[in-house]
């Protein structure tokens, strides 16, 4: 192994932060590291909003399900899939932009995910920590209005960043045979692997919560997937000019 792989394998979600601020120069370094991520066809379809206004932070915390660390973290970033600048690029060359394609939604959203992962890895290399905030999509229209996002721009997720004031254990991931296949898809042995993994996760939760949470991974996932998953997202994205064809 090497230091990069060790860093990646040590990732934890951090939700409690010290009062130490993140210097502006360090934040710029993190964003530039994000820009270095792979980008489909050089489309560069991610825009990051650094939310510093305290009232906006508090509103975003409420929109995300009353997650207090959204308001308290030294830095809170909102990663937006952004095809607006591409519309401008087309206008600069009198080229009518063909928009609304599902492929454009996939590439812009993937660009954001790759960009953000570079940011958090870079932050961890500087002894910072953070957590993704997908809860912004609970009230995505309100988030969009608060941040004045135009057509062709939508908030994919947020990210809290700061210097850790907690030291949680690394959460065990799925067994390698479940996620790595050879030549074709097969799930013949997946149930057996998941049963073993369930016991690992059950023990992890017991240790992490002092015995207050007793749940396996498959119990957690099955409980989540019997519920609707933000059905408001499709009409919102269509209003923003995505997923029209």
Automatic annotation (TrEMBL):
Q: What is its EC number?
A: 1.5.1.38
Which InterPro entries does the record associate with it?
A: Flavin_OxRdtase_Frp (IPR016446), Nitroreductase (IPR029479), Nitroreductase-like (IPR000415)
Record keywords:
Flavoprotein, FMN, NADP, Oxidoreductase
GO MF term (any one): FMN reductase (NADPH) activity
Q: Does the keyword NADP apply?
A: yes
Top-rank taxon: Bacteria
The chain positions of domain Nitroreductase read 10-163
The family this protein is said to belong to: Belongs to the flavin oxidoreductase frp family.
Q: What is this protein called?
A: Oxygen-insensitive NADPH nitroreductase
């Amino acid at each position: 192994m090497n230091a990069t792989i060790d860093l990646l394998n040590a990732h934890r979600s951090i939700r409690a932060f010290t009062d130490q601020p993140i210097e502006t120069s360090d934040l710029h370094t993190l964003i530039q590291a994000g820009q270095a991520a792979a980008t489909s066809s050089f489309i560069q379809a991610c825009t990051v909003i650094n939310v510093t206004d305290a009232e906006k932070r508090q509103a975003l915390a409420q929109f995300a399900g009353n997650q207090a660390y959204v308001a308290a973290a030294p830095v809170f970033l909102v990663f937006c899939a952004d095809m607006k600048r591409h519309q401008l690029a087309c206008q600069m060359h009198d080229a009518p932009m063909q928009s609304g394609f599902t492929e454009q939604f996939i590439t812009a959203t993937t660009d954001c995910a790759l960009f953000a992962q570079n940011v958090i890895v870079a932050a961890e290399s500087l002894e910072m920590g953070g957590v993704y905030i997908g809860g912004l999509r609970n009230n995505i229209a309100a988030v969009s209005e608060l941040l004045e996002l135009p057509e062709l721009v939508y908030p994919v997720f947020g990210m809290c960043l700061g210097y850790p004031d907690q030291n949680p254990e690394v959460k065990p991931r799925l067994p390698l045979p479940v996620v790595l296949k050879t030549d074709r898809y097969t799930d013949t042995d997946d149930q057996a692997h998941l049963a073993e993994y369930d016991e690992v996760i059950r023990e992890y939760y017991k240790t992490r919560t002092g015995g207050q949470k007793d749940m396996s991974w498959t119990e957690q996932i099955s409980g989540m997937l019997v519920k609707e998953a933000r059905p408001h997202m499709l009409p919102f994205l269509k209003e923003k000019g995505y997923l029209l064809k």
